[in-house]
Design a protein that fits this description.
Length: about 400
C-alpha cells in the first residue's frame, strides 16, 4: 500500500511507536494497524515538524507514558513548545506556552508523567564548560514546577531510544526521563515522579565521559587519558543512597572501530550496552560482562565481535562459530546465527535480522533455529516490530507489513 508518511534519508521515521502503531516524519504523522492499514493521517504544523530524535526539538518526547508528546520549535527567549497527539483520533493539541529560557544552549528536553497528573516537561540549558539549569514545568498550564542549577558542567545520559528502533532486541537500557551527573551528585527523574532526586556519589577520577542507566545500575565512565589510555568505569546502585560504587573497573580503553583523531581510539556512538550485558573496550580485547556485579567472564579475541542472543552476548567469528561464556542445556540450545551475516547485522528478535546497506538500502533475513536462512526481503529502510510477529518497513514508495514467520 502507498507509504502514508515520508521517510528520512535512512528510510526510517523520526517518530516510531510500535506500541501504538504511530509513525511520523516531517509534517505528517499516521497510525497503522497490524495489516499496515492507515487508521488516521494528520498534517502537522511547521512548529511541530518531526525532524529530530528524542531529546531534541522537532521530535517525540520519550518516555511519554500512555500518550504521545511532541517537542516543537523554541521561540526566541522561550523553552520549546509542546503538543499532545491523540493516539485514537490523530488530533494534535498545542499545550500551554512554555516558560522563559534560561541562558545557555538547549541540551535536552524530556517529559515525565505521574499517575493522575498532567505532563511535566523538563529542559536543560547549559553554558559552555560551565553550569546547567534544569527547568520543569506543567506542559498543560506552563507553570514552572521546579528549577535546579548546577555549579559546574553536567553530563547527561542519552535520551531513550524509540520503541521501534532497529537493534533493540534484548535491550538492557533503563529508560528514565532524566539522569545526569554534576557537582559530585547523581541526579535522577524517575518514572511516576515529579521531583528530581539528588545524592552525593564518589565519582571515578578524571573527566566524566558517559552516564549509562542500566536495568539495575547507573554506569559512569571516564575519558581515556595518558599513554596507556587508562579509563575507569563505576556502577552505582539505583535502590540505595550509598555514595560508594557497587563495583569499579580500570581498562586500557581502545575501540578499533573508532576513527582515530588524536590520542586514544574512542567513539561515544558505539553502544556499551547490548542485551543484558555491558561491554568495556580494552586493548587486550573488549570485556563483556554483568552490569549488576561487575563480573566479566568474556574477553573478545582478535577476529571476534559481540552478538546479542536473547539475554546473552556471544563472541562470534566470521566463520559462524562462537564462544558462549554462559552455556545453556541442549534443550534450550541457542538459535544459530548464519555465517553469512556480517558484524553490522542487527538482531530484531523472532529469528529476524536486519542487514543495513548503503543509504536507504537494507535487507531483512529470517533464520530458523538451526541457523538456516529461510527467506530474504529487500527494504528501503530499517524495519520494526509493530506487534510480536508483524514487521513493518518502507519499500520504495510503499509500506509493507509482514509476519516474521514469512
Amino acid at each position: 500500500m502507498p507509504l502514508p508518511v515520508p521517510t528520512d534519508a535512512s528510510g526510517g521515521w523520526a517518530l516510531v511507536s510500535r506500541r501504538l502503531g504511530i509513525i511520523g516524519h516531517g509534517r505528517v504523522a499516521a497510525r497503522i494497524d497490524e495489516s499496515g492499514k492507515v487508521l488516521w493521517r494528520t498534517a502537522l504544523p511547521v512548529q511541530f515538524a518531526l525532524t529530530g530524535r528524542p531529546g531534541q526539538t522537532h521530535a517525540v518526547a520519550t518516555p511519554s507514558g500512555s500518550g504521545v508528546t511532541l517537542v516543537g520549535a523554541a521561540a526566541s527567549g522561550r523553552l520549546p513548545l509542546m503538543a499532545a497527539l491523540d493516539s485514537r483520533t490523530g488530533r494534535l493539541t498545542k499545550l500551554a506556552p512554555p516558560p522563559a529560557r534560561p541562558p545557555g544552549e538547549l541540551r535536552l528536553v524530556t517529559v515525565s508523567s505521574t499517575p493522575g497528573t498532567a505532563r511535566q516537561a523538563v529542559a536543560a540549558t547549559c553554558l559552555p564548560r560551565s553550569s546547567c539549569t534544569l527547568t520543569a514545568w506543567n506542559a498543560s498550564t506552563g507553570q514552572v514546577m521546579w528549577k535546579q542549577r548546577t555549579r559546574g558542567p553536567a553530563v547527561f545520559a542519552a535520551p531513550c531510544k524509540q520503541e521501534g528502533e532497529a537493534g533493540r532486541a534484548g535491550s538492557h537500557e533503563n529508560c528514565e526521563p532524566l539522569v545526569l551527573v554534576a557537582d559530585g551528585l547523581l541526579m535522577t527523574l524517575r518514572h511516576g515522579e515529579d521531583r528530581l532526586r539528588t545524592r552525593p556519589v564518589e565519582l571515578p577520577r578524571g573527566h566524566i565521559a558517559q552516564v549509562l542507566p542500566t536495568l539495575y545500575r547507573i554506569l559512569v565512565t571516564t575519558d581515556p587519558i595518558g599513554p596507556g589510555c587508562r579509563a575507569q568505569a563505576a556502577a552505582y546502585d539505583l535502590t540505595t543512597q550509598s555514595p560508594t560504587p557497587v563495583w569499579q573497573r580500570t581498562v586500557a580503553w581502545d575501540q578499533p572501530q573508532a576513527t582515530l583523531h588524536e590520542g586514544c581510539r574512542k567513539d561515544p556512538s558505539i553502544p556499551l550496552l547490548m542485551a543484558h550485558r555491558v561491554t568495556l573496550p580494552d586493548s587486550a580485547g573488549a570485556l563483556v560482562g554483568n552490569d549488576f556485579d561487575g563480573t566479566f567472564p568474556l574477553r573478545l579475541e582478535p577476529g571476534e565481535y559481540p552478538v546479542a542472543h536473547g539475554s546473552a552476548v556471544l563472541a562470534h567469528r566470521v566463520d559462524g562459530s562462537y564462544r558462549d561464556p554462559y552455556p545453556v542445556p541442549s534443550a534450550t540450545t541457542r538459535r544459530s546465527r548464519p555465517s553469512e551475516l556480517s558484524p553490522t547485522a542487527e538482531n530484531l528478535g523472532q529469528g529476524a535480522w536486519y542487514l543495513p546497506g548503503r543509504g536507504r538500502r537494507g535487507e531483512i533475513i529470517a533464520v530458523d533455529v538451526h541457523g538456516k536462512i529461510t527467506w530474504r526481503r529487500a527494504t528501503s529502510g530499517p524495519p520494526f516490530f509493530l506487534t510480536d510477529n508483524r514487521l513493518v518497513y518502507a519499500d520504495g514508495s510503499n509500506l509493507v507489513a509482514i509476519r516474521a514467520s514469512g
